[in-house]
Amino acid sequence: MPHIILSAAEPGHHRRRYEEEPKKHHRRSSTHHHRRQEPQRVEPTDFRFCVELGLVIRSRKRNHKAVTGLEDEISTQLTAAGIANHVPTSRTSRVSSREWTIASELCIPSRPRDQHFGMKLVSPFLRFSKRPESWQAELRDVLRTLDAHFELTTTHQCFTHIHIAPASGFWELDQAKGLAKSALYFERCLDALVPPYRRKSVWAKSNRNNRYFGGLPMAECFDQIDAQASFEGLGARLNWCSSESPTGVALGAKPGVDFQHDAYRWNFVGLNEGDGFGTIEFRQPPGSTSASEVIAWAMLVGCLARLSCGAGGSLKPDTKPQLKSLGEWLVYEAEWCGIPHKGLLKDLVKQTVPVTLAPGTVEGMDVDAITFDEDQRLRWKANDRNVALEKYRRLLKHV
């Protein structure tokens, strides 16, 4: 998947992509000399991204009886560390695309009696390959400040979500299709990078086994993606949810009336903004309590997007994807665009948990049932504000 072209002497050279470096060929001597074709790098699309950290947080020094007190203390400590942030005072108050946003998180259970609260911290939109040392330093500062003043713990509902959009502010349809193909093709590889509970989470359902793609061979899935003429159509197919699924039942969907839902491993519903505007979100990673974890996941998503956008045709749907090859491609991309500390990405790919199937189960299939608590929280989240998407809309005014 690395991006390489061959430059010819004549105009109209064609772009080619390889999974390995092109072989050198010896030419016979001739009275007619042609310019040698030299492999050159094709610079892929650059991206902006936003991180959502979902954690259970408790103050180390104060016993907060309500989440508002904890929000204020987090804001105070981040401000003291020089980190721009804000706490939305109401559902209608604006959020900034340039500051961290601090809010409670409805999908994470809180324990007020023990002063533990489900919280969400949403980063500004950061430029992936332009001064990457800057965003890595900012993530370290935030996590270092949080760890110094608060207890950070995770549950099965905690998460590290990465929202991504081209640096231009909008997607081209072929770019989104390329990432959609990678999302389906590499799903089982990425499953191996997360704890087993994040492979069966109602908050990160399988795109490969959703209502639309379930049962189709990968080649036909690719054909269906290629056939989409709109972003809305692409998003619908990646995030098509059955009314008979646990999520559909929890949300009270009418029998036989399937619908789009955002709680999939890869969320393309944000593309419903139209005309290429919106974010694509990777929702599968578990909660992260260290900067190293957050940076590694951000690198994985950024590098995969750079490799995928426009390169969907280089994937071979009839062959089985290999995590080892995927990891090598990702690290290659991190090296090429100068992302520091690529060893974090290497460690993430190495620390895999084997995907072991129970007898009689379908590979990657979602859970058959959800808990009463998850049922309730799905309903609550349906009416929750999408802070990251609001930040994206604010970002467009500055791009």
UniProtKB/TrEMBL annotation:
Protein name: Amidoligase enzyme
Residue spans of biased composition, Basic residues class: 24-36
Superkingdom assignment: Eukaryota
Species annotation: Chaetomidium leptoderma
Coiled coil: none
Lineage: Eukaryota, Fungi, Dikarya, Ascomycota, Pezizomycotina
Region span, Disordered: 1-41
